[in-house]
Structures are given as C-alpha cells and as structure tokens.
Amino acid sequence: MSTQKTLILGGIRSGKSRLAEKLAIQTHLPVTYIATATIEDDEMRARIALHRANRPKHWHVIEEPIQLADTLQQVTQTDHCILIDCITLWLTNILLSEDNALFEREHASFISALPQLPGTIIMVSNETNMGIIPMGELTRRYCDEAGKLHQLIARHCQNVILTVAGLPHYLKGGLDA
Q1: What is the pTM of this model?
Q2: Residues 121, 19: contact at Cβ < 8 Å?
C-alpha cells in the first residue's frame, strides 16, 4: 500500500492552502479536494469563493463538513491525491454540533482511519496555539483539541510543514517544494 501523508499548518493567510495545492499538483496524480468549510456569513462565502477560483477546475471536489473519516475511507486509493482543507474547520464543525456524541465519534473515526488510508493525503490546518490562552471555555477547548489533534495527525505523517509568510518550514520529513 503506497502512502504519503503531509500536514501543513499555519496561521490565517499564511500560504498553507496555496502550498497544499502546489504539492497536490506536483504529485501528477488525480486530485480529490475535500472542503470542510460551511457558509455561515458573507465573509466566509467570500473566502470559499476565493478558494474555488484558485484551485484547478479539473479536480474532483467533495464538500463534507462532518463525516471526514467516512468520506476518506470511500475516496482514498493508491495513485491518487486527497487534499483536505481544512482540518480545524472540520474540528469546529464537530465541536459546535448539538449532538454531544458527534465530536467523540467523528474524532475517533478520523484518528482510527488515518493510519490505514492509502495514497497521497495532504491536510491543511490552522495553527492556533502560538498566542495567549483564550478566555472563553469553548475557545480554550477548541485550542486544546486542535493542539492534541495536530499531534495525533503528525505522528502518522511523513511530512509536517509550518507555513509562515508564504514560506514552508519543514518540521518533519522534507518535500521538494
């Protein structure tokens, strides 16, 4: 089973999505783009429109804000590239669900599925834990869960990249970017 997993972390507008798209193109494999964002306001609608305009039109796109593990298990295959944008938006979606068991179920499913998935998988996620400790309980939980999730994902990745000011900093592995 051929596998190559990459986690790209960075702040907002750090260049992480652009880098992920570049790496996906460089694989020369068919690409499936899994978008986890939901449109809740005009600002998010504009962000999503920008992402849609920037990615290649021939990529297969799946919009899945909740059931990421199930979607990945259905679409991953050897000699194929999956680009997930963004892990922290998915995390937000499952944290905000009114179904209290949803977070535990979806989080566990994703972490359980990740090591078994074939093919090339590129995951984009926001690094949120480089500042002060947030005041609100939900915000602190989000930051805690994001930090723990990034550590779990990084264990299963051959490459972990922190993107700052559009520049990739390789924390683990190394791709020719």
Answers
A1: 0.92
A2: no
